[in-house]
Amino acid sequence: MGKRNRNRGRNGGGRDGGAEGKSDRDSGWGAGYADIIKENKLFEQYYQELKIVPEGEFEEFMEAMREPLPATIRITGYKSHAKEILHTLKEKYFKDIQDLEIDGQKIEAPQALSWYPDEQAWHTNMSRKILRKSPLLEKFHQFLVSETECGNISRQEAVSMIPPLLLKIEPHHKILDMCAAPGSKTAQLIEMLHSDMDVPFPEGFVIANDVDNKRCYLLVHQAKRLNSPCIMVVNHDASCIPRLMVEQNGTKDVLFYDRVLCDVPCSGDGTMRKNIDVWKKWTTSNSLHLHGLQLRIAVRGVEQLAVSGRMVYSTCSLNPIEDEAVIASLLEKSEGALELVDASADLPGLKYMPGITSWKLMTKEGQWYSDWSEVPTNRHTQIRPTMFPPTDPEKLQSMKLERCMRILPHHQNTGGFFVAVLMKKGPMPWNRRQPKVTVDSVKIANPKKDGVFIGLNVLCLLLTCKMKLFGFKEDPFVFLTEDDPVFPPIQTFYNLSSDFPKLNVLTRTHEGKKRHLYMVSKELRNVLLNNSERMKVINTGVKVWSRNNDGEQFGCAFRLAQEGIYTLNPYIRARVINISVEDVKVLLTEENPFLSRLGEDAHAQAKKLEMGSIVLRYQPDLKDPDAPQCPIELCGWRGKTSIRAFVPRNERLHYLRMVGVEVFKDKQGKKEGGASESQEGNAENTEEPGQEEDTAEQEQSDTEQNGSAQSKTNNSEDVSST
Q1: 409 among annotated binding-site residues
Q2: EC number(s) (predicted)?
């Protein structure tokens, strides 16, 4: 959602996290700043006068604003895995919590958000203090933390989940997320692209942008948890994000997006329940300072939107200066090219107030202005005409501002939020009239034509941004050719299918040995190849292979990477061992199990394979409803006499839970059940593309050479099955 600005607003996207911030003290489980008085008379005066709250509800509204915000979780990942996590939550944790009493008080079990599809989002009022008082709740908390770390659950405020849902994403959509960090909504967009797990490369993609370079890496971290080849993170000022080109049928065309998420920086007064410091810092000046930036970002968003495409504009502010005023100005400038969409039926169960059509401005000194004509000249730099409602009643009525949606905290125990859905019916007027971009054309343009003036302003900003781009390049993205010598041994060793898209494979270095190989979708490859000088790419691609220095003696110098296994799965036809639920337990709880520890079928398959990297594949058994009903793919290594899984720690714990193994720590920090410490410590180290070329990879060469067959003991633990 929109994030609160901290003196970085003019850069287009700088904000401190708003309702998705990372600070534990700001969010969830009933935490907050106890020493801040939750009073602001100017805030109350302002919103009482604007009447955004229904008559008779203002006290209830203010009481809700003073209450801590419930913690909200969203089940992430792709559909079949998400169903398994939901099943675990409901059957293992929520049922037991329903009958739990602590200090004579019955614990309220988490409740599903009524408007979120398929029970994939839940909220709870349980505090950290309560969680520490019960071993059962402590296990629940550890489950949430562990699953969050590996990306299967996201701590995300409820209202933040709304914009991606209203975009109505389909797998073929090309999506721009303009102000994306920290990335919770970006993750939602990626999940929607991958609604069909059997399709490793959807036609669509997500380009996630943020102006703050450091926050871009936070965004990378969020996106990487989903292991998608269809996400690219870029670093630009959202108000002048470059227009990209793609090649189609031998010619280059402008890339227009099917969906744009315009989640702009904002004053964040809707986040007072979790960002408690807003109470003492709130003033009407915040909105006045941000309005221009928000409008510029929104203009740039609709410029890049395809005709018939959909853009969602959102903020976590309740202020109409940041909300309806931006939308009204955008609609007026579009001259009919944009239309507000009626999204009232898109999220059944969501309570909201319709957008307002009349509002006033107030300065921090308490001075009110109802119309631009009332504003004194000395305030014209701070207060602009676009901040007021249209004065023409017919024009105002035709905008249908009531189709905007304002979520109030007391209606469904959430934060405050604003969202509007726009559809583009035709090119923007300044794009229709715009001449070719040359220095002369910029000079001679008639600034009195408002639309053209705005368009050329944006173009000037683009030229400036492009010039600033040079000198800040990340490591290169180098695509391999089909005849690259790296492919034949890989193709032979894994018996890759003939339709394996070699051209989608890239590395991050021009020189020396290729250490890691990544894959992107065909469409993102098109974007990368045609825009290397236009955009600053921070990260893209999912790692599929990593070099094993001693692997050549086994026939292939590259071992499989766990994060890319689901992308490669459809193409690998060799080096695969089909395993059972019991095999999964053995592989993830024993450090170096001998081949004989596998079930009879898996043991027989393993004996036929030479040493080297392997895929350990579990397929659901429809006849056994108690077993996981989603596929599981694990990377492993077949040694001389033993076998092991190379799976990162958090994924290991996730898969163990899926097969009924309980993994948690007691209050002394000792593990009960699950993998040994050494097993977890040897899990594959995942690195971020762009950094690995400069650091030495922690190779597991000794293990990979012999599968740790030299180990004289089989360090297994008892499996604690539920």
Answers
A1: no
A2: 2.1.1.203
| Alpha carbon 306 to chain centroid, angstroms | 22
The fraction of the chain above a pLDDT of 90, given in percent, is: 61
468 contacts: CB under 8 Å, gap ≥ 6: none
Pairwise pLDDT comparison (19 vs 372), residue with the higher score: 372
| Angle (CA) 141 147 150, round 5° | 145
pLDDT digits (tens, 9 = 90+) for 6-26: 444 434 443 433 334 333 333
DSSP string, 507-536: ES-SSS---EEEE--HHHHHHHHT-TTT--
Residue 263 counted as an annotated binding residue: yes
Tell me the helix, strand and coil percentages in the chain, rounded to 5: 40, 20, 45
- Give pLDDT, residue 671: 55
Which pLDDT score is estimated for 622?
84
Tokens of 234: 């870029």
CB atoms under 10 Å from CB of 573, counted, come to 11
Angstrom distance (rounded) from CA 575 to CA 560: 11
118 is in an annotated binding site: no
- The answer to whether residue 666 scores a pLDDT higher than 90 is no
pLDDT tens-digit series, residues 515-570: 999 999 999 999 999 998 889 999 999 999 999 877 677 889 999 999 999 999 99
**CA–CA–CA angle 97, 82, 351 (5° rounding):** 70
- What is the pLDDT at residue 201? 86
- The span from the CA of 722 to the CA of 657, in Å, is 9
Q: What are phi and psi of 657, to 5 degrees?
A: -65, -35
Note the pLDDT of residue 473.
56
Is 440 marked as a binding-site residue? no
Q: Which two tokens stand for residue 377?
A: 């000249």
Characterize 476-512 residue by residue with b for buried, 16 or more Cβ atoms within 10 angstroms of its Cβ, and e for exposed: ebebbeeeeebbeebbebbebeeebbbebbbbbeeee
109 appears as a binding residue in the annotation: no
Q: Could you tell me the CA-to-CA distances from 550 to 76, 158, 642 in Å, in that order? A: 37, 49, 18
**Does residue 182 have a cis peptide bond before it, meaning omega lies within 30 degrees of 0?**
yes
Cα–Cα distance, 489 to 472 (Å, whole number): 36
Strand partners, 111: 123
Pick from 668, 663, 678: nearest CA to 92: 663
Could you list the active site residues? 316
| 403: DSSP letter | G
For the stretch 272-285, pLDDT in tens is 999 999 999 999 99
Asked whether the beta carbons of 323 and 317 are under 8 A apart, the reply is yes
On whether the CB atoms of residues 364 and 382 are closer than 8 A, the answer is no
Q: Is 183 annotated as a binding residue?
A: yes
pLDDT score of 433: 56
- Detail the DSSP E strand segments found in 527-656: 537-540, 542-547, 558-560, 576-579, 612-618, 632-638, 643-645
Q: Which residues are within 8 A (CB) of 424 and not within 5 positions of it... i.e. 6 or more apart?
A: 302, 305, 306, 307, 308, 309, 310, 311, 337, 338
Task: Classify residue 386 as left (phi > 0), alpha (psi -120 to 50) or beta.
Answer: alpha
Rounded to an integer, what distance in angstroms lies between the CA atom of residue 379 and that of residue 128? 48
179 is in an annotated binding site: yes
How many contiguous H segments (helices) and E segments (strands) does the chain have?
Answer: 25, 31
Lowest mean pLDDT among 157-166, 250-259, 661-670: 661-670
Residue type, 162: I
Across residues 407-432, what is the average pLDDT? 95
